[in-house]
Amino acid sequence: MASNFSFSFGGDDIDHDDQPAPLAKSPTRATDATTPVSSAASAFPVQGKPLLPPVQHDMAHMLSKLPSKIAFGLLSVILDDGRTIQIPRRELWDVRLQLMAEEDSDVAPGSEPGLGEHDVKTGIYEGGFKSWESSVDLVKVLDAENMPLVLKRDPCVLVELGCGTALPSLALFQWALTERKSGGKLPLELTLADYNPSVLYLVTLPNFLLAWALHQREENPILEEAFASEEELELTPEVIEAFKDFLSSHQITLSFLSGTWSPEFVELVYHSSALASAAGDVSTLILGAETIYSPFALQSFAGTLLSILERERRERPNGSAAAIIAAKRMYFGVGGSLDDFNDKMRELGATIENMREETEGVRRGVVRCLLP
């Protein structure tokens, strides 16, 4: 059964879309999953209920499940120095149309993988399909920290936990695409993780495809034709193949993980990593926005974050590893807070550095976590 759990962060959804969501199934499940996902599991991690196990998703399979075209808009983020970065996002109404179409064409067990009875139902919770102000805060901090320069200097590993629409990772991806135009090809590995696999299929991967297509459209006639409408991208087989070929030839790896934060999840992070055995000057960055909204989420997130930082220090002593986390100062009604997260990480032995404070509207902050 789908969970009817409804959750609101209260006033900071930058999509400003209050239409009710359709009840629908997740469009796919990973082809490499060995066991079906329990239908009792919620599309939102809730203490005391069955949790989705960590699963790695094959990008080629995910691409094969996309519709023939996707509608999108551009989010303009004004950076601290006055420059603007535009980040593409699949339109929420387009996601809903796909969900309703797949609900209407539900198939019997044993049919095409990804549309069977064991898929995760998203219910009415749409938090992962939307963008939140803390993710915009992260984009601004990454620019202020001169991450484009880091991409030029070192092989980079990025892990975004609770990625949703993945605005921070998309900003880094776009900076990397610009660097590729000037001839740079240092390896870049992006691991996008969200509890709900439908988020990865419906918004995370499409947003990366959009970012690449918009960046490369003037250099690729196939893409010019695919943008027949300025607000839609046609996903022809040629476009999909060009996307995969570009990533491969430019040493960019995209990995997608779903399920609950846990030791098994951390193992999957490194199992999926092309740079897992690299022991040189690798820069590793873990990102998270709006991931500590409750004490239950905070505990599992902090433990997972610490495990990744410890593993980086142990296996890549010559590299650098840090986490940058953005969140509200207080999540009223559900009990999480940024101060509680800071206290928990200090208790686990990490150091905390305040990087940004937003006092207008809902109070928010951004912190950096390091191991001493």
TrEMBL record:
UniProt keyword annotation of Transmembrane helix present: no
**Keyword Ribonucleoprotein applies:** no
One MF term from GO for this chain?
protein-L-histidine N-tele-methyltransferase activity
Q: Which Gene3D superfamilies does UniProt cross-reference here?
A: Vaccinia Virus protein VP39
Enzyme category, top tier = transferase
- Subcellular location per the Swiss-Prot or TrEMBL entry: Cytoplasm; Nucleus
Give the span(s) annotated as Disordered: 1-40
Q: Residue ranges under compositional bias (Polar residues)?
A: 28-40
GO cellular component terms, semicolon-separated: cytoplasm; nucleus
Q: Which InterPro entries match?
A: Methyltransf_16, SAM-dependent_MTases_sf
What UniProt keywords are attached to this protein's entry? Cytoplasm, Methyltransferase, Nucleus, S-adenosyl-L-methionine, Transferase
- Recorded E.C. number(s)? 2.1.1.85
BP term (GO), one: methylation
Per the record, the similarity remark reads:
Belongs to the methyltransferase superfamily. METTL18 family.
Listed name of the protein = protein-histidine N-methyltransferase
